[in-house]
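Priority: medium. Attachment 1 of 2:
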């Protein structure tokens, strides 16, 4: 049975939670575990960073809408390509929400951050482990706001008018601003370190460059 919980939208019951978890885990598995020459190390590197990202989101939960995960998704996508970046986004969302709370919004958060990682893989934000800081900051600001608006759709119901939803978005602008500011700080403090770490730790992982993913790190 699905229950409701105020501004967060519907809270899923046990059966619904199981279904959404199975779907997201399955998608993540196929994104993450496509066979490569160094699959074990690839999984270890990615899951270690993902666990740290999820933990940081949990620790920062008391601060309203401070989401360093947005910039981390951009850097992961830019450094490792869409497949690994999107896997990172989905798994980090699931791990952190296992502590913070699961619900209908988990699907929107996971797909939102996966889209951010995908965008990062296409925008040349990291080249040869060097971060294009100005481009990253601008992208992070837009991604933060668009992500918040996408997740806000989780509270939209058939009985809500467009005007009511618009008022909800307007009331959330201060929180969107906090997200954007946190993303700027994350871009300055975390992005160079993360890009360098990914470059060093995945230097011998071999993956062919896909069309449109010229920024993927290759051996």
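Attachment 2 of 2:
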């Amino acid at each position: 049975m699905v229950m409701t919980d105020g501004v967060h939208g519907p809270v899923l019951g046990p059966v619904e939670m199981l279904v959404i978890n199975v779907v997201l885990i399955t998608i993540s598995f196929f994104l993450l575990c496509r066979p490569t020459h160094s699959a074990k190390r690839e999984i270890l590197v990615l899951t270690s960073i993902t666990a740290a990202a999820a933990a940081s989101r949990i620790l920062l939960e008391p601060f309203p809408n401070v989401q360093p995960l947005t910039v981390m998704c951009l850097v992961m996508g830019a450094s490792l390509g869409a497949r690994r970046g999107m896997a990172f986004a989905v798994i980090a969302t699931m791990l952190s929400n296992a502590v913070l709370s699961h619900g209908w919004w988990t699907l929107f958060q996971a797909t939102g951050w996966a889209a951010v990682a995908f965008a990062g893989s296409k925008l040349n934000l990291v080249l040869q482990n060097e971060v294009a800081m100005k481009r990253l900051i601008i992208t992070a600001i837009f991604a933060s706001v668009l992500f918040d608006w996408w997740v806000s759709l989780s509270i939209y119901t058939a009985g809500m008018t467009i005007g009511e939803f618009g008022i909800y978005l307007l009331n959330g602008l201060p929180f969107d601003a906090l997200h954007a500011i946190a993303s700027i700080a994350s871009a300055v403090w975390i992005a160079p370190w993360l890009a360098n770490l990914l470059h060093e730790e995945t230097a011998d992982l071999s993956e062919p460059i896909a069309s449109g993913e010229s920024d993927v790190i290759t051996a």
